[in-house]
Each structure stands twice: as structure tokens, then as C-alpha cells.
Amino acid sequence: MTYIGVLLAITFVFSVAGLFVFVWTLSSKTPAEQQHDAEVIFQDVGQVEEPAGTTSQEAALQAHMTHSDTHPSPISAAELAALDRSSRVPFLAFLYGAMGWLIIGSIAGLIASLKLHFPDWLVEQPELTFGRIRTLHLNAVAYGWSAMAALALALWLFPRLLRTPLVGARFAVAGAAFWHMGLFLGITAVVLGWNGGMEWLEIPKPFTPLLVLGGALVGIPLVMTLVRRQVDHLYVSVWYLSAAVIWFPILYLIANLPGVHFGVQAALVNWWYGHNVLGYFVTPVAVGTAYYLIPKVLGTPIASYNLSLVGFWALALFYGQAGVHHLVGGPLPTWVVTVGVVASIMMAVPVIAFAVNHGLTMKNHWRALKHSPTLRFAVVGAVGYVGSSIEGCFEALRSVSTVMHFTHATVAHAHFGLYTFFSFIMFAGIYFAVPRVLEREWPYPKLIVWHFWLAFVGMLIYVIGLSIGGVLQGMAMVDEKRPFMESMLLTIPYLQSRSIGGGMMVLSHLVFVAHAVLLAFNRGPQRTGPALFHKAAA
Amino acid sequence: MNRHLDLVIGALIAIMFATMLLVVFPYAQLADLKPPKGLKPYTEAQLRGRAVYIREGCLYCHSQQPRDPKQTPADMARGWGRPSVPADYVNDRPPLLGTMRTGPDLFNIGARQPSRDWHLVHLYQPRAVVPGSIMPAYPYLFRHAREGAPGQVEVNVPDKFRTTGAGSIVATRDALDLVEYLKGLDHTYPIRVEDAESDTTGAPK
Questions:
Q1: A255-264 pLDDT, tens per residue?
Q2: Measured between alpha carbons, how far is A205 from A209 in angstroms, rounded to an integer?
Q3: Is B14 within the bounds of a domain?
Q4: Under an 8 A CB cutoff, do B138 and A492 touch?
Q5: What is the pTM of this model?
Q6: Smaller CB count within 10 Å for chain A: N or C?
Q7: Given B26, B89, B140, which is nearest A124 (Cβ)?
Q8: Minimum distance, in Å, between the CA of residue B154 and any CA atom of chain A
């Protein structure tokens, strides 16, 4: 036991010391310098920017934002357009691939959801059984939609943030091809009955090198661009995005080492990996994107630039150990579970830093949501980050886990995180980026409204309903006086409401992807020429 | 200051730290676990059945890890068995602990329900034996034959739940293997002090 105590103490001291060292290095900068760093992303400070909005929306947004401090920064619209062109091909390759997986993945999710309350539906074909369709859903939305959308936005953001054209874009295009191939083969294998056997690691090992190679090939241009950058300061988004790109291949490689992991140790690696896909990949990409989009649309620098960097280091130090909370009450050494619980609770630090920062940035500007589709998606995503993470802190507590673990509440929580938080920020990024990259506007602004409301209301029904159902299920399960069947039967209405919410989400994705395809093929009404230029020319 | 180097080094330290704590240390601690005396190695049929369990995604709805009565008395009260310990899983690659209990925990299903016939009917049509169950039916693990032949295992499904009229319903090898695996899930043997050493709950040794 003493060695466990020492280990825990070391963990804590190391984490806190790391934060202090970092804060100390920051304090060597004056507030004016920090302000300057925070402004590095703008063309013109004080100028709103909303390529997904109509001209009138953008004008209303500008009128709403009464900036006290406006001044131009050294990059011109034409230079920015050239940066976007440098990442165009790999960006589109990843993005439209991601959209395809989103459609496949969310339809599979809906089928899996329906199967839980229609258990005799589609049972004749092994490929369509719940256990395989659910796995198709998870892998398609995690490695298809989420990872590819994240990489697409990273490829688009890097040249902008570093003011350097993307170096070696063709590596990233090759990476997209390998990633697609690995994922397609892996998911097909799972559906045909070849499953790796661990959650989040179902893709059979022979196909994983394709994904590692794909990821590494995307890393090359990002690293090369980082090294050749033409800005002095690395904006906070760069920190988050670069770290994500460094972390993911390491995680995936260690988790997939053949023949090493055994028994409960493998279960531990399973959740170390499974949660770090979220914590060390998906989360930093979305947080980094939010740190770019929200200030950019508003034309106002982030409220506290210092705080955003503290948030980054806190995330780096704490998130990595949080995954063990999936095994609270499981057959593992006590100290490991305790490490996981402590780290999960410490995650409140970066999350509160994020909440305070974006809350202050948005302060007095909530009405801007009316005028900006990008902002609407991004702010729902940011609120989703704070909400789902704080919920996650509580869920890690042993007493809460006793009720919520093993129930549909976990599934609701996963969607709260990956959908409300991550996917909404990705949607925001896509609505902002595609008009810039293709130099055309979204043809039907109404479809963006439809997408938003279908996804938003569907998500609320999904998350709220299933969370309630899951907690009730958990309460029935820990009450030994109630038969187990009761914990199953009482969830059925909530499983049904989940299918309704999920159906709305699927519909919203169809609207979204159809719109994006129309935009790509230049169909539909042309509005005011290339999105960027009606404002920048002014 | 060369800041992108700071960033890369910082990110690497963070992930190394997490890897040491959650991958390397537990590996070192658990590497020399011995199987408990009562734990039988899997038979060939059970291993094939285990592969079917994985292939069909049983673990997405069933856990195999009863909790300690000190955390919740319900798991043991439901007959799911004593809290499991790391040594129970030494033969498991990959482990199938599971994270959901849409259905009950199966760590000791073999002890609780030792009947092959019950399992076969339940797989063919769960609602034939558990009214209200939301488990999927697995008719594709069975074949329809005009009449049973020697050596085949026929399943006695009540007429109401048969998907075809006449003839017999015969279990495929996959179904039989899966049932072998389920019947083998019996961890009711006692745990020695040293097996329980790393028990999560700090139960009395």
C-alpha cells in the first residue's frame, strides 16, 4: 500500500508542478504581448467574419459588435485565400470522406437503436445483428466521421494559423487514401464477423497499420508546415492541434501492439486508449478549433489568452489518466482506479478554464448567435464541452459510477461528448471553412437552419431522454429487491425516444451532406460571388 | 525560444506519463499473476464459442465482472457471484469485461444456467424463455431441417416462436460452441489470498 500512496503523491505533485512551471513561463510576458499573441489569427481586429452567413446576416453581426479596438493586422484577404488554396485538396479529401462516413455511421446507429426496442427486426442476416451494426456505427463515426473531420480542419487551420502554405500536401492526400482503405477494410471485416474483441479497437490488427500509416502521412505536412512557419507566435489552437496529431499515433500503436497485452491489463490498455482517443485526439482538435472560430467570427480576441494555455497543459497532464474511470468497481488494482478517478476530477481544471474564457468572450454578445450559423454551432459545441466534461467528472466518482456505470446513461454521455461537443464544433468549422476553400457560398442558407435545429432538438431528445432512462436503469440495477428484468423493461420508452432523437440527427446529416455536395458541385443559386470577397473588398 | 520544440516535448512528456501509469506499471504488477486453482483452461470448443461471443458483439450488452458487495450488494444478491479478481482473467485474450448491462452479467452464467437446451432456445428466440427480453434473436445460428438426423442437436422451440412451420430446428456448430463457452463461464471456485491481493475493493484478505 505504501508504494501506491507514493505513486499517487508523485502523480499529484508532478501534475501540479507542471502547471506551475508553465504559468511561471507565461508570466514573463506582459499583458500587451499576450494581447498581441491572441490577435495573431485576425486579418482585421474588430472585423467580424462569417462566410456561412448571408450578406445581411454578416452586416447585422457587424452592427451588433461594437468593437472599441479596431486595427488591421498584416495579412490580406488575398494572402489568406492563397493559404486556403494550399490545403484545398487534402482538406476536401478528408472532409467529404468524413461526410460519407457520417451518413453511413449515423444510419447504422439508428438501426442499432431501433433494434433495441424491436429485437426481432432484421435478425435473419448475421451482418445486421445488433452487435455488428452497433460496431459499424461506432467505428464509422469515430474513425470515419470524427477523425477525418478533425484531420480535415487541422489541415485547413495549420496554414492559416502559421501563415505558411501547407508543405507537402500530397502526403496528406495519400494519407487520406490509406486511412479510407484501412477503415473500409476494417469495418467490412467487423461486419462480416472478424472483430478485434475490444471496444474502440474492433478493427482487426492486420488492418491497423494502414490507419497508422494514413495518420503518419497526414502528420508529415503538418510538422513540416510547423517547422517552416512564418509567424513568431504559435496561437493556442496550434498547441491543441499539434498535440493531438502527436498523441494519436502513439496511442493507437501502443494499444495495438500484438501479443503484449493480457487479461485485465489489456482491459486497462483498452480504456486508457478508448478514453484517450477522446481526450488526446478528438477533444484537443475541437477545443483548438473553438479557440479559432469563436473569436474569429466575433472579430474579438479571446478574453484571456493566458487561461487558454493553462487549459492546454492541464488537459495534457490530467486527461491521459482519466480513462480508468470506465473500470471503477472492476477487477483491477485499487491504485490504478484511484489514479483514474483523481485525474477525471482534475479535468474540471481545463474545462473551467475553457468555460470562463469563452464565457467572457461571448459576454454581451449572445445575440450574435442570431446572425451567425457558425457561431451557433460553435457555441452549442462549447457548452456541450463544458457540460459533458463536468458530467464526466461526477460520473467518475465511485458512488455515481455505481449507479451510472453499465447503463445507457454512459451511452448518453458518450453522445453528449462526441456529438453535442465535438460534432457541433466540427459542423461550425465546416460551415466556416468550405466557402473559404471553395471560394463559393453555401447555396441554401435555409438548409443550414434546418440542419441546426434538427440536430439540436434531436440531440436534446437523445441525450436528455437516454440519460434519465440510464439513471433509472442503474437505480433499479443496484436495488437487489427489484428483479433484473425491471431494469431492462423500464428503459424501453427511453430507448424509443432515443430512436426519435437519433432519427432527427440522421435527417439533419442528410440535409447537411446534401447541401455540402451541392456546394462542391456548384449547384444551386450563386450568391454574391466568392464568400470571402464581398466583405474583404470593402 | 524555439517554441514548437517546447510543445512537442511537453506533449510527449504528458503521454509518457500517462503510459507509465496506466500501461507500464500495471503490466509490471500483473505480469506474474498465476491462474487460481479452480480456473480451468478453455477447451477447443469453448475458445471457438468465445470467438462467436466476440463476433456477434455479446460484450456490448453483457459484462463479466460482478462488483464487490461493499460497492453494491445487488450484484451478489442477483447470483452473479463473488467480486472478480485479476487472476480470474489470466486466460483471457482479449478480456471481455464489458461496460454495459443491458442484459445481466455473465461471469457465472454457466453455474446459474447449466442447461444446454435452455441456452439454445434462448439464442434462437430469447422471448421464448424470457418474456419481455430485448435481446436480439439469433436464428442464423440454427438450420432448418426436414427431420432431425443422428448426431444433430435439435432445439425444442415452442410453436409460437418458430419462424418456419414443419421440420426441425438444428443448432449449428457456432451455436453449440457458444453454448459451450457460456456453460463454461463458472467462476464460483474460491479465491486464494494471493489471488485477491490486488482486489480493487480492498476486501478483507
A1: 998 888 999 9
A2: 8
A3: no
A4: no
A5: 0.94
A6: C
A7: B140
A8: 19
